[in-house]
Design goal:
400 residues; DUF2306_membrane; membrane
């Protein structure tokens, strides 16, 4: 047990260090990314790095493709980008101050973090509102994914604030980790810009983005789940009994997920080489995430950690339902937005895992709140004064 605990702490420190390095590296990239669009020739760290890791032609093509869409909303996008870089710096401060119990620092930086999220996302929202999906950078599918990430980011930080105000630190922690996970899609996407061209030579940035959004939502929400479970060492939650994810629910979720996966697989395979590439980018990360969550749920159950098993199980059910959700979303996007099949397919798959992870955190939050309500009612019942026993009515008649 001691060895297992030490191993977990080692992995936790390594993950924290890796996230911190990524955030500190990406902060100047985000803050300078849009300078060339406002002043051609202005220095941009990200372009400089991308030009050397891929090619100057790849960078020039990316700038050219983004010039038109970004030109309509350059000021809001600069606000979004610069404040996004600031969020990359505030995130590690928030995490480390929470772990080290620096309460005052955590509250001050947390307030700055929340305000910065709202203002930064407002800039992104203005860009999305002013830009028709078909005219957005990387097309309608990318626009839909960006809009979904924006809503998820704003929603999660809002729920995190409400949880802190109401005195629910465990819920506050989960929602803010999910919020930061959504924010991490930006640096991870830039990493894929530097790596994927070597795996798929000849693809332009539009196609690279399509490959990336196949799994970015799943990866960042999975990272938020791992962090939540690493910080929550409780074996049980007071008031929590039973499960909201019994065997019939798990079986139904797996059957729906299997049907969704089959539909997605057939749909992508019908799109030729590009479809197979996108399918691979979706299935491999999905399978790895599924295996890790399933193993963690089983191990938690074997050691009697009921709360850990419950949270893992709820997220596993949500992950299983994600392909079914994506499959059902595709025809809706086709009809409501007038998208072609492949664009709707990419968008539906791109938002599925992220949206279901958001739903899973919602269900986990309700699970905790329900357990606390049960505990509160039990305490109220225990505090009720005991009613005096009623006197037995006197028997009629005389003495025998």
């Amino acid at each position: 047990m001691a060895r297992t605990t030490g191993t977990r702490r080692g992995w936790g420190r390594a993950a924290t260090l890796a996230v911190t390095v990524v955030c500190l590296t990406y902060a100047p990239i985000a803050m300078t990314e849009l300078w060339p669009y406002a002043s051609p020739g202005a220095p941009a760290v990200g372009e400089w790095l991308l030009g050397r890791s891929v090619s100057p032609e790849f960078v020039a093509e990316a700038v050219r493709d983004r010039m038109g869409p970004y030109g309509r909303s350059l000021v809001p996008l600069i606000v979004h980008s610069v404040l996004g870089g600031l969020l990359m710096l505030l995130g590690p401060v928030q995490l480390l101050s929470a772990v080290r119990r620096r309460i005052r620092l955590h509250r001050i930086t947390g307030t700055v973090f929340a305000v910065t999220v709202y203002v930064s996302m407002a800039g992104a929202a203005l860009y999305l509102v002013r830009t028709p999906p078909a005219e957005a950078f990387s097309g309608a599918a990318f626009w839909i994914v960006l809009a979904t990430i924006l809503v998820g980011t704003v929603g999660s930080v809002t729920f995190g604030i409400l949880a802190a105000v109401r005195g629910f630190p465990d819920l506050h922690q989960r929602w803010l980790l999910l919020c930061y996970g959504f924010l991490m899609t930006a640096p991870l996407l830039r990493l894929e810009w530097g790596v994927l061209p070597s795996l798929y030579p000849g693809l332009d940035l539009r196609d690279i983005n399509r490959v990336a959004i196949m799994h970015l939502g799943a990866l960042v929400s999975f990272g938020a789940l791992l962090a939540s479970r690493a910080l929550d060492q409780r074996a049980a939650v007071p008031g929590l009994t039973g499960t909201w994810c019994p065997l019939p629910v798990r079986v139904a979720a797996h059957l729906a997920g299997a049907a969704g996966l089959v539909w997605i697989t057939v749909a992508f395979l019908g799109e030729g080489t590009a479809g197979r590439r996108l399918l691979l980018a979706y299935l491999v990360p999905y399978a790895v995430i599924y295996a890790v969550i399933a193993v963690r749920a089983a191990r938690a159950g074997s050691r009697g950690a009921d709360w850990a098993r419950e949270e893992w199980s709820l997220h596993l059910a949500a992950l299983c339902l994600a392909p079914a959700f994506s499959a059902a979303t595709v025809p809706v996007l086709e009809r409501t937005l007038g998208l072609d099949r492949i664009t709707a397919l990419v968008a539906g798959v791109g938002i599925g895992c992220g949206m279901l992870a958001y739903a899973a955190v919602t269900v986990v939050s309700l699970r905790i709140l329900y357990a606390r309500e049960v505990l509160r009612r039990q305490r109220e019942f225990a505090d009720l004064p005991t009613a005096p026993a009623k006197a037995e009515p006197a028997l009629e008649g005389g003495r025998g």
